Amino acid sequence: MADKAHTRNFSIIAHIDHGKSTLADRLIQLCGIISDRDFKDQILDSLYLERERGITIKSQAVTLPYVAADGEEYELNLIDTPGHVDFSYEVSRALASCEGVILVVDASQGVEAQTLANLYLALEHDLEVVPVINKIDLISADVDEARRQISDELGLDGDEAVAVSAKEGTNVPEVLEAIVTQLPPPTGDPAALLQALIFDAAYDPYRGTIIFVRVMQGTLKAGQVIRFMHGGTEHKVEEVGILQVKRIVKKELRAGQVGYFFAGVKTVADTNIGDTITLAEEPATEPLPGFREAKPVVFSSIYPVATDDYPDLADALDKLKLNDASLIYQKDSSQALGFGFRCGFLGLLHLEVVQERLEREFGLSLILTTPSVRYQIYMQDGDELDIENPAYYPDPASIDYCEEPYVRASIMMPERYIGAVMPLCLDRRGENTNLHYPNPGRVELSVDLPLAEVIYDFYDKLKTVTQGYGSFDYEMTGYRRSDLVKLDILVNGEKVDALSMLVHSEKARLRALHAVNKLKESIPRQQFKIAIQGAIGSKIIARSTVNAYRKDVTSKCYGGDVSRKRKLLEKQKAGKKRMKLVGNVPIPQKAFLAVLQTDTDG
Amino acid sequence: MARSGLGLYLHLPYCPARCPYCDFNAKRYDHGEARRLLAGLAVHLERIVPLAQGRPLDTVYFGGGTPAMLPATELAALLARMRGLMGFTPRAEISLEANPGALSRGKLAALRSAGFNRLSLGAQSFDPGLLKAIGRGHTPDDTRRAAAQARQVGFGDLNLDLIHGLPGQSPAQAAADIAAALELEPKHLSLYELTLAPGTPFGRQYRPGQPPLPGDDEMAAMEQHALAALEAAGLERYEVSNFARPGMECRHNQNTWAGGDYLSLGPGAHGHLSGVRWAWLSDPAEYCDAMERGEEPHAFREELSREQRALELIMLGLRTTHGVELAPLAALLGTDPRRMYGPAMAQLQARGWALVRQGRLIPTPAGLAMADAAAALFA
Ligand SMILES: Nc1nc2c(ncn2[C@@H]2O[C@H](COP(=O)(O)OP(=O)(O)O)[C@@H](O)[C@H]2O)c(=O)[nH]1
Ligand code: SF4
Ligand SMILES: [Mg+2]
Asked: In terms of residue numbers, what domain contains B170?
């Protein structure tokens, strides 16, 4: 087993599509841990237990044995990370497990928004950065320009950067050599008290939870009784090993190494990413820094379109939870939608991923209510409530004041976009803006934003106004006083409870208009007029009308139309069952979804 | 159930050009393919004879497409072969669809003497600008000439097709169209509202009720005027879109709406025999391939349950002023339909959409305007 001097722990970072996965494929192939027959493209991605829309959620590790030019054998641990702000904490834990990163830059595209954002993340963790220029086989490749940008815009040594074609394998061995020569070996003492960082965990139906760790100090072995320093639980280690696409059992993992272990931990929810493992008998004095409990910040209720599917939904959530500690849920119910679950998520992306998995893997057809943050409500009588579900919003007359969560957002972008981003932030009730110029031409905007605005559609809007060049990160900062109202949506005078939302009073009218207009577009006409209203208490602040049919009859129906027309009737009948009735108005699923869509200016 | 007359629908999918609103099984005329299809039809006709079980044809309908585009000799030969193989009832109704532009006096005479006795002309509008806007190749005068010549050669039973709700059409223009049509004294008139079919140029170009299409109020005005004008001219409404002098209704279609039997021939043609519905392959080449390989060119074939048949009878009957006959429905279901559809029938009457009278469920004018919603109550 490699000693520290012969170990390197690194991650690959890049702007999307610059070739991170392809380079990883080549490195894995070069090190020969998998036969060509078993190899498939984007192999790391294919190993992820959760992979949705190209966004990797779980971090992955792979140990690459490598004999360097100096004739020595090295153990290179590649730790692959997810790439979205919802999971920035997970990324930070993965990076905390490394000493360095390979920063891939596409030779035809040059430095792009996420190149910079990722570089900053790496620098925050004091990591050594080795730039690699990729796709030199492309006709449009401009290696010299890429070198210049790496030097001028990133402040790295562009002239020495290895230039490769990950696709064709050109110069990839030099990347391995650069990892050995340019990245520092890990520090840490195998004889010290054990401190190992959990950077991920995944559910294995046969073995319980597989926990991925970087050992910082001491040695982790099978048979030891370990303690989760934050979680407080103790477990006996059953197996330790390294990952070479397959699991390879080892006797121990020593300070500086990356690997996995099993310790009879039942579900992923029993572990915390970022937690420190130590020995129960001889614990370290302190956990490793940087731990944060994964707390849900976005809440939404999920209902099955067909009420009969409720047990299936319950079952599906239980299964997802096995592998997704950050998903929380509890029973909920609505007059309009029946039984469902109130769920908490790390962010909107997390919500979308869960929704997609429920729909795709479990075949469920769902309605989700408008995502909400958690508000703190201070009552006249001195009581204090945490409310994230509009259904529990108390009588406004009994409320003294409310507070809503804020984040400190950091937006990195080329200077030319600041004129568009600033008004966006102000429109989203941003405060305390602060500009910082890390390099010429680049600007970092720090701003306090209400989380509610961030989860609405801030990220999409930012992407649009910066043409993809804006990178965005945030951290929760705390609660501030806010002017909160509950917006209700009424259809023919009946409240659709599932569409109620808590919003800032300044935004209420806009949101109400959005909702009533979306409903108008998606509620099918009936034989009677349908009034749709947005209201705060008894005050109507927005309205729209779905007009009654003048007629409802197909012009032509001859011999060739009979079958189709009958089938349509039969289909409508099935569709009717899937519609939710509010009063006597059938509301299709797509109406709920349309209201949820956040294209306020669309 | 008493057996009504047997129909036969023949589909000929060729047109001079494709109209931008059309979603029928129609295509631009292709001479080589048309020849091949005619040969295929001759073969297929012989193969469907057993389906008639010896019954003579009471109605024959040459539809399309624009069947009259094909040479009169070919159309006459097909009809003669049908007569020879299956026989016609004494009063058989033999209809032919035609575009005013595709006809000459000589051709009309030949068709009439071949045995066609009902001619349906796709007039669509009498406004030259509107005709152009909807991509029709004929002029209002073509229609007038064709109608006059048809009458001269003995087509007493003439139908005109009109479309309301065309792009840019005003209620006044629509009224003028009705008046112009009535001047030709047709015995039958079909009046359609423009339907925006997805996948057609119009379907992509226009939104219902949005300019340049007439709005809801204008459509209502057009319809109101048309109903009054047609009635005043002695053309009685007998189906949602069909008007005729008493006794001049299209029996072929009436048979369809009453759940009767009809055979089918040609690409995409649908047929029905006592609860079995089918259609032939709609692509002419595939249809011919199947024919040449000696295969049945089925696109689909389904045997309906009693409930499905009943639903069809209701759906179709509620579109006609005759209404839904309750006795055949009861025979089909083996129970009183009033028991089976109690709530739906009560709703219909409560909404003023239909009355039960003379053993029939008869739609009111308001009910005809809501026929789809009315049928949905029974699904
Ligand atoms: N021509 C060329 N294409 C490459 C190279 N490396 C990656 N690609 C392609 O670029 C696209 C994005 O690569 P991928 O590795 O998935 O990028 P990632 O998003 O950074 O993981 C894929 O279509 C790759 O095949 C390269 O060296 N040359
Ligand atoms: S003539 Fe009739 S069938 Fe032919 S394309 Fe025009 S509308 Fe369609
Ligand atoms: Mg990738």
From this structure: 6-257
Q: What is the mean pLDDT of residues A471-496?
A: 90
H or E segment to which residue B137 belongs:
none
How far does residue A244's CA lie from ligand 1's centre (Å)?
23
Residue A250, sorted as left (phi over 0), alpha (psi -120 to 50) or beta, turns out to be: beta
Q: How many domains does chain B have?
A: 2
Task: Tell if the CB–CB gap between B379 and A560 is shorter than 8 Å.
Answer: no
Q: Grade residue A83 by pLDDT with cuts at 50, 70 and 90.
A: low
pLDDT digit string, tens, across residues A330-385: 999 888 788 999 999 988 778 888 888 888 888 898 888 888 999 999 999 999 99
Task: Note whether A413 and A421 are within 8 A (CB).
Answer: yes
Residue B222 predicted with pLDDT over 60: yes
3-state helix, strand, coil in chain A (%, to 5): 30, 35, 35
**Pairwise CB contact (< 8 Å): A552 & B316:** no
Does one domain contain both B201 and B331? no
| Ligand 3 center to A20 CA (angstroms) | 6
- Domain annotation covers residue B330: yes
- Does B313 lie in the same domain as B246? no
CB of residue A169 inside a 6 A radius of ligand 1: no
Q: Are residues B35 and B179 in the same domain?
A: yes
Q: Does residue B267 lie within any of the structural domains?
A: no
pLDDT in tens, A189-240: 999 999 999 998 887 777 888 899 999 999 999 999 999 999 899 999 999 9
Q: Indicate whether B75 and B191 sit together in one domain.
A: yes
Look up the pTM and report it. 0.61
| pLDDT > 70: percent of chain A | 94
Q: Determine contact, residues A233/A195, Cβ cutoff 8 Å.
A: no
Angstroms from A416 CA to nearest CA on chain B: 39
Ligand that comes closest to the CA of residue A15? 1
- Residue reference for tokens 């320009």: A145
Site of tokens 């004091």: A126
Same domain, B180 and B317: no
**Residues B159 and B46 grouped into a single domain:** yes
Do residues A187 and A4 make contact, with C-beta atoms less than 8 angstroms apart?
A: yes
* Residue A570 touches partner B, C-beta closer than 8 Å: yes
Of B198, B231, B257, the domain-final residue: B257
